[in-house]
Write a structure and sequence with these properties.
about 120 residues, alpha+beta, S16 Ribosomal Protein, Chain: A, five-stranded mixed β-sheet, 3 helices
Length: about 120
């Protein structure tokens, strides 16, 4: 059975509250789970101790059994010092594409040539 340590959403509309659970990966997000391992309340301030509560011993037990944490849970575990930090790909989403970069370079060359011409006169 493929086990996951993941978030199960609770709370009302626009007021999320999550349980950290160990569940079979084939079960739905808010469906059946095997064990509740903690809670996460994103509405609380980041420095609040009540924001993330975890039963670290049980999480380590499930990790030893082969359960895979989701990305969000692995970040929480890294912050708590339970697992070592992973090297993540630094995606370059903010950079424009190739064609846009070429157009910008051409525009810069044209502007430089115009400025050079104006300075020569």
């Amino acid at each position: 059975m493929a086990m996951k340590i993941r978030l199960a959403r609770g709370g009302s509309k626009k007021r999320p509250f999550y349980r950290i659970v160990a569940a079979d990966s084939r079960m739905p997000r808010d469906g059946r789970f095997i064990e509740k391992l903690g809670t996460y309340n994103p509405l609380l301030p980041k420095d609040s101790e009540e924001r993330v509560k975890m039963d670290v011993e049980r999480i380590q037990h499930w990790l030893a059994q082969g359960a895979q944490p989701t990305d969000r849970i692995s970040r929480m575990l890294e912050a708590a010092g339970v697992i070592e930090k992973k090297q993540r790909a630094n995606l370059k989403k903010a950079e424009p594409g190739k064609k846009a970069q070429e157009r910008a370079a051409a525009r810069a060359e044209k502007a430089a040539a115009a400025a050079e011409e104006a300075a020569a006169e």
